Amino acid sequence: MKIQASRQLAVGSAIAWKALNDPEVLKQCIPGCEKFELTGEQTYAVVAAVRIGPVSCRFTGRVVLSDIVILKSYTLNFDAQGGVAGFGKGKSEVVLIDNDSGCVLQYSVESQVGGKLAQLGQRLLEGAAKSIADDFFKRFDQTLKLQAGVIEQKPTGARIALGGGIGWVCIGLILATVAVLALVN
């Protein structure tokens, strides 16, 4: 099954790209994200905790990046295991397109799911997927505005380090989570 969507971001693609490659920003923005780490060239291990209706699970997965066009796009392949709760695997493509209002983040996800999550009702899964995606993009857009100086940032004393490519893992994780939650066999 395939999901396609887009989100308007309040900043240009250069700022969005930088944030997509900042592991601290994305760890804060992704609901339930516990960790992500580089395990090989363009390969990352990820962990996220998710609750949908009566099912709580902790997904562990792998994301492999390819077709990276800096400041523009990427492709990723993902697989995630949630134990008896289920699994998801698939492919996602993400594109950033500048416009007069900032940039648009377009994404498509093709995935397969199984386990208990696949047995939940379509409406429950779609509602959970929408909620998770909305929460991520609300946090992410707020962070982008802070980085661009559109709104005033409160001092935290924390220093955020940039990490090349890790942002794609986080976006892959959120897209994989959305795909796992939104699709029913």
In short:
This protein has 185 residues and is an alpha+beta fold.
What is this structure's SSE topology?
Elements (H helix, E strand, L loop, with lengths): L1 E8 L3 H8 L2 H7 L3 E8 L2 E10 L2 E15 L3 E9 L5 E13 L2 E13 L1 H4 L2 H27 L17 H17 L3
Question: What do these coordinates show?
Answer:
With 185 residues, the protein is of the alpha+beta class. It has one domain (2-182): Alpha-D-Glucose-1,6-Bisphosphate, Chain A, domain 4 (2-Layer Sandwich), CATH 3.30.530.20. 34% of the residues lie in helices and 41% in strands. It has five helices and seven strands, in the order E-H-H-E-E-E-E-E-E-H-H-H. It has a seven-stranded antiparallel sheet. Strand 4 and strand 5 form a beta hairpin. Helix 4 packs antiparallel against helix 5 (166-182). The protein is globular, with a radius of gyration of 16 Å. The termini are close together. Mean pLDDT is 76; it is low at 152-170 and 179-185.
